[in-house]
Amino acid sequence: MRILKQSPSLQQAFQAKIQEKISNNRQEVKQDLGGGLFGEIGAGFFQFKQFRNQIKGNLGETFLSLLLMSLPDNWVMFKNALIPTKSRNLTEIDLLIIGNAGAFLVEVKTWKGSFSANQDKWKRREGAK
Length: 129
What we know:
The protein has 129 residues and is an alpha+beta fold. It is 45% helix and 29% strand. The strands form two sheets. A four-stranded mixed β-sheet has the order 1-2-3-4. The chain has a two-stranded antiparallel ribbon with strand order 5-6. Strand 2 (76-84) and strand 3 form a beta hairpin. Helix 1 (8-32) packs antiparallel against helix 2.
């Protein structure tokens, strides 16, 4: 299995957009809690949760990519592949794997429960929720 990489400038631009989105979400949490001390505490919890989820996601993606390294050398893998959407934005796919059997888009999640996906929207069911 060969690992290919995309343009560093493209990845940096995408990461800047992600960081902007996270920052905006943090501000929303802070404002929803009325700003001040409670807003800062809530924003801190939000940021901690984002960091924890990023670590868990990176571990899952790394573990799976190590398992896939046993595929033949004529297969290739892109980690965190950026793919253009109809709206001319970019979406990130955790692993894009291309080989003799086809192309596979793999999204790694550390969620519990059952899932369904439609385009870029995910739904999760946990128990009766």
